[in-house]
Write a structure and sequence with these properties.
Two copies of one chain form a homodimer. By secondary structure, chain A is mainly β. Chain A has one domain (2-154): Hypothetical Protein Pfu-838710-001, CATH 2.40.320. Helices cover 9% and strands 49% of the residues of chain A. In chain A, a hairpin with a 7-residue loop joins β4 and β5. The N and C termini of chain A lie far apart (33 Å). Chain A binds chain B through residues 1, 30-31, 33, 35-36, 38, 49, 51, 53-54, 63, 65, 67, 69, 73, 76-77, 79-82, and chain B through 1, 30-31, 33, 35-36, 38, 49, 51, 53-54, 63, 65, 67, 69, 73, 76-77, 79-82.
Chain lengths: 155, 155
């Protein structure tokens, strides 16, 4: 139930050619408070309910709990979420032994591209591809929950 | 996913002798906002995650979605809930063809006893036992989510 993750801005779209999968994600929040976010997500034809706790001091480690739920239930639950739906295309890009998830945002967050990498420990070494930019792991403005309330275009 | 329910105050403890089951419930909220409550509940040795939408005009009908979750996960998720845990003993009391759930609250809500009945339609007829008091279905103060923030003893 512990997720260790680091997040980076993306400098160019050179990752596109390296991506081996592309999935549309639509998600909204039953609670966008970073102390206890509750997210409803539809990823292609699957529904998910995800709960996350607050990040630690570096923002790298958070409690995370997820369960798959029926697509129809996810659609129903989206109707009672807070306003501010996140719409993005997730590209899965393998770099060395790790997988980067590169999210290209649409709608109110168009223009934002963010890459995340999940790690086994906080100090795990990983390869940084040329298109990887500044680290924003500890910057709450880039939390999707925050983007649902204060979208990138409004910055 | 639609729940139709009516709620009443309880006048006496005469229901105790009619109860055929008694279960301890401990619950707290990942969101206590009545527009979209998210509840973590431990009922005896089982964990549950429940999401409810806003009530209709009469407060009788709400969207409700529930899933059982592992007890250990529920215990972990309780640690990131809002403060204000609800602790109560639920008595199941059969009256005619219906089941009343009579909740005897403890802790900060001690002194409060509330009975709920689940119906198939808003206008369904049901028997009212002698211990049943005033209807409070539409009174948000008696929502458990509200009681977690403003407990009965503080009224």
């Amino acid at each position: 139930m512990i997720e260790i993750e680091r997040k980076f801005l993306v400098l160019s779209d050179d990752f596109i050619n390296e991506a081996f999968a592309k999935k549309r994600i639509v998600q909204a929040y039953l609670n966008s408070n970073p102390e206890r976010t509750v997210r409803i997500r539809i990823k292609e034809e699957k529904g998910f309910l995800t709960i996350k706790g607050k990040g630690n001091a570096t923002g790298t480690t958070r409690l995370e709990w997820e369960t798959e739920i029926p697509l129809q239930d996810a659609e129903k639950l989206l109707t009672i979420c807070e306003s501010g739906t996140i719409d993005k295309i997730r590209h899965e890009v393998k770099v060395g032994n790790h997988m980067y998830e590169v999210d290209v945002f649409a709608g109110e967050n168009e223009g934002l591209i963010v890459a995340e990498i999940e790690l086994q420990s906080e100090d795990e070494i990983f390869k940084k591809p040329s298109w990887l930019g500044k680290e924003v792991t500890n910057d709450e403005r880039f939390y999707n929950a925050y983007l649902s309330v204060k979208p990138f275009k409004s910055w």
